[in-house]
Amino acid sequence: MSGLRYVYAVCRPFGTPLSAQLTGVAGVPPKQLTHHGLVAVVGHVPEEDFAEGPLRAHLEDLDWLSATARAHQNVIDALTVVTSPLPLRLATVFRDDSGVRMMMEQREETFLRTLDRLDGRVEWGVKVYAESPESPEVSEGRESAENPDSRPAPSPVKPVSGRDYLRQRRGQRRAHEEKWEQAEEFSRRLHETLSGYAEDTRIHAPQNAALSRASGRNVLNAAYLVPRSESEAFVELVDRTKDDSPGLRVELTGPWAAYSFSGEDS
User: CB within 8 A of 241, min separation 6: which ones?
Assistant: First the structure.
């Protein structure tokens, strides 16, 4: 089959076959390409989309990028069920099979060392969100708008002095700061506890709310490399913490291939 070679991941040989119905990028089923003690999971993709020039243009197209990322992740998820893959970066492409084998030859020692470290392990993600404290004025305004009948009868408005205004503002700032301090302390303790179940951890930068569309401020964004044998206990521990965190939201994702621990920057 002609076309370029799209590489999803590098693995050790695995006995359980992937589903015959599994398709990847460009709707093409992934295949295995073996070299020494390594397997590259590859797909054939059209040159008119994945050659350097067209690919650079496509990466600016969010719809195309999202569809490609979903197809890429479908293959990685399927691999994670049957082995511990070392996922490569989205849109890692080579001219032909010999190019893929040359890449495996050049990086064989690094791949084998990383695969040994990831064998039998998965990545779990944990995020903690804190809602922004809301001032009494905002809350009261919302309740009145939602239920006009609850509005109090008009009454003379007492002027607020500059000193009283500043005192109120200081109190609001203190409440705001205390909220974040409590959230950060909860996140620190949670991370320490979860780290006891993990062989390695990564603290990622907080998610941008505009991009993630998640409500609240992202206080913790962490990844944990956990043995499969310990994953059930890890999940139960995270679930228990959700009841101990009023005003905070704890989100668990996974199990994933160990992206955060692959050491793959290319």
Answer: 190, 193, 250
- Long-range contacts, 53-60 (Cβ 8 Å, 24+): 55/91, 55/93, 59/91
Q: pLDDT tens-digit profile of 176-192?
A: 667 788 899 999 999 99
Distance CA 198, CA 122 (A): 10
Query: Would you put residue 252 in left (φ > 0), alpha (ψ -120 to 50) or beta?
Result: beta
pTM: 0.77
Where in the sequence is the domain holding 183, given as residue range(s)? Answer: 122-133+176-261
Residues 76, 128: one domain?
A: no
Count of domains forming the chain: 2
Cβ atoms of 79 and 85 within 8 Å: the answer is yes
CB 134 within 8 A of CB 216: no
CA pair distance 31, 130, nearest whole angstrom: 44
Residue 153: inside a domain:
no
Provide the 8-state DSSP code for 96: S
